[in-house]
Amino acid sequence: MTAAASPIGIVHLTERAPQISGAEMVAALVPPPQFDDATFDSYRADAAYPSQQDAKDRLIAFAGVGAPAARGGLFRRAKKEPELKPGVYLDGGFGVGKTHLLASVYHAMPARRKYFGSFIEYTALVGALGYKNTVELFRGADLLCIDEFELDDPGDTMVMTRLLAELVGSGTRLAATSNTPPNALGEGRFAAQDFLREIHAMSASFDTIRIDGTDYRHRAVDGHAATLTDEAYTAAIAAAAASGVASDDAFADLVGHLAQVHPSRYIRLIDGLSVVGLRDVAEFSDQSAALRFVAFIDRVYDAQLPIRATGLSLDRIFPDEMLGGGYRKKYLRAVSRLVASTLS
Length: 344
Description:
With 344 residues, this protein is of the alpha/beta class. The protein has helices at residues 22-27, 50-63, 98-108, 119-129, 131-138, 154-169, 196-203, 230-241, 251-258, 266-269, 287-302, 320-323, 328-343; strands at residues 9-11, 87-92, 114-118, 143-147, 173-178, 206-211, 245-247, 249-250, 276-281, 307-311. It has two domains: 9-20 and 217-343; 47-68 and 82-213, 3-Layer(aba) Sandwich (Rossmann fold).
């Protein structure tokens, strides 16, 4: 089923087996819908965290669209700006506006060829087209924006570091976001010491910009995901289905189905939906399943879809041992997005 069909009713995501071509993947390399109009002017830096304004100023300079606000006294000698590296890397916690700023760079730069995608979209493209064809596709591009840069396995490390090195060598500029500094990518996840040369070579291409702050999604909420009774859930799904398309799946069934769908296709899995429904939510015991669900929630959040759920509160689905491991920041970002999505 596709978004074009847009039937009114209830669907089961476990019955969907979406496909996506390499050409469609490339066409989708633009900012998510909620950042269609993102600009530097619309980014509201929190005065309590000066690094946010500093990041904004440095990205304006990187994009080459104007000078940052002047600072200092009338007779202060102008400070010579350091030579810019080919890439900027926004390092900070979740919910501090990194993706907004990344999209602002994308929209502001008057580039002829520019691309914006999540890390997983780029690695999926390599899988679909092959490494050589992907290099040729992006060669000569003016700008590559990479959201949520994460290296979860050695294969991704090798592919992305070599791809970016080739593109930088051909003149492409890079802008990326992550919750992890570039020289710490992969830490606590796999034998990072075996790939230090590749990781450090990649980090040398980036000017790292630290952004501090609090998660804007939690500034006005209590931090807990909303959980419905069975009756309230049934009513909520029925109401959504009366004017659009609502999904309705048992949590365990959907988690199992995600293992059968490549993460690059998760966006197609939710095509045409107005609400995502999850019944009998439970705690994860398998890390691979948990990480797939995180990738799924990223797509749900990008699509700005509300979630309705029964069972365990969605902010409690990752056990302490997972939250204390190498994927801690990924899980916390997912919790942040789950809370926001259940309250929307």
